[in-house]
Amino acid sequence: MYKEIFEVTKERFHLQDPTRYVLQGTWPKEGKMLAFLDNSQLKADIQKLEIVSAMERFKDPDRIRGERITATIQLPQDLKGYHKLKIYADTPDKKELWFSIPVKDLEKKRGKPQYYMEEEKVQAGCVRLRGWTIADGPVSVHIFDENKKPVQADIQRTARVDVEQLYEEAKDPGKTGFFAEITGFSGKVMYLVFECKGKKSVYVVHLQKPVILANKVEKYAKKGMKYLKYQGPAALWNKTVSKVKTVSTREIPYSKWIERHLPTKGELEKERRTKFDFQPMISIVVPAYKTPEKYLRRLAECVKEQTYPNWQLCISDGSGADSPIRKLLQELAAQDERIKVVFSEKPLQISENTNQALAVAQGDFIAFADHDDELTPHALFSCVKALNEHPGIRVLYSDEDKMSMDGHKFFQPHFKPDYNPDLLCTVNYICHLFVVKRELLDQVGMLRSAYDGAQDYDFVFRCVEAVKDQEIYHIPKILYHWRCHEDSTAENPESKGYAFEAGKRAIEAHYERIGISAQVFPGEFPGLYRTRFLRDRDPLISIIIPNKDHIDDLKRCMNAIDSKSTYKNYEYVIVENNSTDPATFQYYKDLEKENPKARVVYWDGPFNFSAINNFGAKYARGEYFLLLNNDTEIINPDCLEELLGYCMRSDVGGVGARLYYEDDTIQHAGVVIGFGGIAGHCFVMQPRGTTGYCHRIICAQDYSAVTAACMMVKKEAFEKVGGLSEDLAVAFNDIDFCLKLRKAGYLIVYNPYAELYHYESKSRGLEDTPEKVARFNREMAVFEKKWPEILRDGDPYYNPNLTLKSQDFSLKRI
Asked: Where's the Glycosyltransferase 2-like domain (predicted)?
């Protein structure tokens, strides 16, 4: 029987209240907490701790008899004259010291940036430092030598969701994780300086001998644990982020968020004083039709409020001879020479009406707006700022939201990804604000009445077809308010069924122009579409499945494909990896005899997911590889066809599927770089049938990565990038592989219509031994070194206004 050990695993100061000292650890359930600063008793509050770090799972569960708690100790403002803080657990049987710390150590930390070193390694002339730091604001990290001179080092900063969950009071901590690798350093001492708002903490790195930080929790526990240095949350990445909602992870209401993110009067005034080197005229074209006067007047006002002055407002009145708004338009044009109006004696449909406005537009760039919507006052300024910073832009679009009829309420924000061609073929996500270069308009032509109702969708397609991807720029700001009323597709989509039929035809025309044979069908909701690609042949698919024992899983996986799949031209390459059960090898023999599609190859090395799949690929005969876990089961009979349809496109390298846990919750619906600090799956554990943020769960779209639990990749692309990286044996290898495909010019597509169960345990992926943690940290360092740009700049397929603390695309709390 183990002796019961109740201990502190983390200690810290509250970031905003330096009198609050917070500890976490295991505590006897029947104990009463007594806290003393020398002989003065302090107020102590205990709360049960719901978030448990993976590091705490390293301990033998038989040793943990108590409950996990958070204790808050109220310290005095002035600690002078005191010597030690002691905390006791007072139980019916005994009174035992739980924690103690000298006051001088408390004073060293209070009010300064807090930090924790997770890796400190000196080897072969290379110094590797990893950890995290946090304060009530972004913390800068600098490195100095023993002479206090700066050391040249590329310090990579990453988001750390575990740290920010621990410090839930942090308002704007910035990126809290850091990693640095310094080569050629010859000194004996190195100083790490963490600074925030003029306050500094210093950590001394002694370089006389290599050192790797061990799990101090265990070390101190073995000694009886009287005083524990700060442990902090574990440096672990998990496939799912905790669903516990703290102050820092609970979603902020959009009504509060937008108040903080629209520019202040001072910021707007600063914009008005700004002079750009490039000052293009932007013509805003508006088709008006019997518009309520108050909305049209407000539209003109919001344009006149723009902080960038070089604009035109071009309004075409398609109301006809008896127009109720003609007098208002004449009045507006008389007030400002930048407002141009054109009238028609007969009623005009929307494309023709918009073209009338385009005919009088003289701008270098054209922006499109509806007659009852509004632009934010910094909309045009933001566009021109982008044009100055990125001179090659020919197409711009921004984020948008919806606005109540009275203009007092904003809701349903649409925070969009950067250019995402497959999402665009699923829904017109670009919509507003949309701005194009005038010469591009001249090149592709005006709006086409054959697509009325979706004329903007058709126009967007023709524009993006005519430019390079890098000439399309997304401004991740709300620049457009879309007013809702009952006849608008913004609020009542069923009211314009003809518009969605026109949208379907616009997508079909797009595919035809770019030479892709496809059928387009209505999606699950009006305005969403589904594409099925037409094949002229059925190429061989090599299904590569690593396996170690678990023959019941393998049987289920293969039986589902054999019995359900409507696509038949496939082979299995089973990669055996160190099975120990004799029944496994007998099964292999029987399988190869009974199933002509199956072949077993033998990998004798240690487990390395990348090497195993690369080994299997050498024996694969197919034009397309399906990397597949043995604990999966296809659901829909056309699963392979859905994956193959996208993968056969020349611009696509890899295709992923929608995966469910056994309890019908989402296991995978795409991957975002940055979730959990490195990468994570989207919409994890959301119930099957939910559609997620802006229906993203059910939208075919491009992502930076998808999971290799089920990923189809063309052989040509696989070989072009050298397969999976074998220096990533367990973690991040599929993410790295997808990023290599992206770097080679391929798209990575998530197809929600390829559905499978993935019977992986929801807790799988926890690094629950010190050896696994060491391996994980090594692989994390490899990934960070290979892909610093996307970790620094953010995932282009994820909007920076959305949080990385949860995987549900909720708003970032800033």
From this structure: 283-442, 542-685
433 touches 375 (CB < 8 A): yes
Tens of pLDDT, residues 571-607: 999 999 999 999 999 999 999 999 999 999 999 988 9
Q: What CATH homologous superfamily does 541-793 map to?
A: Spore Coat Polysaccharide Biosynthesis Protein SpsA; Chain A (3.90.550.10)
Mean pLDDT of the chain: 87
Which CATH architecture best describes the domain 8-107? Sandwich (2.60)
From the options 3.60.20.10, 2.60.40.10, 3.40.50.300, 2.30.40.10, give the CATH code of 114-222: 2.60.40.10
418 three-state secondary structure: coil
Q: What confidence score (pLDDT) does residue 244 get? A: 39
What backbone phi and psi angles, to 5 degrees, belong to 131?
Answer: 175, -155
pLDDT level of residue 127 (50, 70, 90 thresholds): confident
- The answer, as to whether pTM is greater than 0.90, is no
CATH number of 274-526: 3.90.550.10
- Name the residue with tokens 């590889």: 625
Buried b (16+ CB within 10 A) or exposed e, 240-268: bbbeeebebbebeebeebbeeeebeeeeb
Domains 274-526 and 541-793 share a fold: yes
Cis peptide before 433 (omega within 30 of 0): yes
Task: Note whether 142 and 122 are within 8 A (CB).
Answer: no
Place of tokens 């994890």: 684
What average pLDDT does range 193-198 have in this prediction?
Answer: 92
| Contact indicator for 599, 588 with CB cutoff of 8 Å | no
Q: pLDDT tens digits for 414-449?
A: 999 999 999 999 999 999 999 999 999 999 999 999
680-700 exposure pattern, b = at least 16 Cβ within 10 A, e = fewer: bbbbbbbeeeebbebbbbbbb
Dihedral-angle region of residue 431 (phi above 0 means left; psi in -120 to 50 means alpha; beta otherwise): left
- Flag the least confident range among 152-161, 399-408, 454-463: 152-161
Residue 208 has what pLDDT? 61
